[in-house]
Write a structure and sequence with these properties.
This protein has about 220 residues and is an all-alpha fold. The protein has a domain of about 80 residues. Helix content is about 75%, strand content about 0%. The chain contains 11 helices and no strands. The radius of gyration is 22 Å and the shape is globular. Bound molecules: zinc ion (2 copies). One zinc ion binds next to α4 and α8. InterPro entries: DUF6062 (IPR045706). It comes from Eubacterium plexicaudatum ASF492. This is ABC transporter substrate-binding protein. Pfam families: DUF6062 (PF19538).
Length: about 220
């Protein structure tokens, strides 16, 4: 198996025996990003420009809080909130109720990206999704997907590693299936889809039986 800087994290993730190798990579990336910014990087102007603009999703706000550097988190938040308040003020000044014809046109043009009926709603949708840590992982995730299919196509030992893995969570399974459409030939798809389908079915059934076993073990006789 070709082990270098581009393939090693993915191969290690498949060896980790996690329920989903991509979740394993995601956890490692988010812990690295939180430690990085709250270690000392939050004092760097170029980092703060990014955190000011992107902010954090709920999940990563919670991770920052739990990390323990309250002053670091507060310094990051203070300038992020200043920028957010400036942007909110501009958005509110521009916001006017939409005329119905305009609303229909906007629905058509924005439907692919957001369900919002107003520019203000679209901006709020964008703010809700915007996150420095999520952006960090998304930036490397597509490379992991590329590497996955490169290895799958060319490396027999990786295909064996894949076949012995525990499958994937549903969001990462979706991404693999969507990506496979572009990355694999018809012949390769005929090999890949039955294998990944068997992995998903076997391991989700195993998960269900493990949880049911736990319930049966813990449930009191009167709850049965
Ligand atoms: Zn996953
Ligand atoms: Zn996030």
């Amino acid at each position: 198996m070709k082990k270098d800087i581009s393939t090693l994290p993915l191969i290690e993730a498949f060896h980790a025996d996690d329920e989903c190798p991509f979740c394993y990579l995601e956890r490692a990336a988010e812990q690295h990003a939180i430690s990085f910014i709250l270690g000392s990087a939050y004092m760097e102007d170029y980092i703060r420009e990014k955190t000011d603009e992107e902010g954090f999703c709920r999940h990563h706000f919670k991770m920052m809080y739990d990390y323990g550097n309250r002053l670091g988190s507060a310094i990051i938040l203070s300038t992020h909130l200043k920028k957010l308040n400036e942007q909110l003020e501009q958005q509110l000044q521009r916001h006017t109720p939409q005329k119905s014809g305009l609303l229909k046109r906007m629905k058509r043009t924005q439907a692919a990206q957001t369900q919002a009926k107003t520019p203000l709603g679209a901006w709020l949708d964008q703010k809700e999704c915007s996150c420095y840590v999520c952006s960090h992982f998304n930036g490397i995730y597509n490379r992991y997907l590329d590497t996955f299919f490169d290895l799958y196509r060319k490396d027999e030992s990786f295909r064996t590693l894949f076949s012995n893995s525990k499958g994937f969570c549903l969001p990462h399974f979706r991404d693999l299936i969507e990506c496979a459409e572009d990355k694999l030939s018809e012949t390769e798809k005929n090999d890949f889809y039955p294998k990944v389908s068997a992995l998903m079915l076997n391991h989700l059934k195993r998960l269900q039986s493990e949880v049911s076993w736990f319930v049966e073990k813990k449930r009191l006789p009167q709850q049965r």
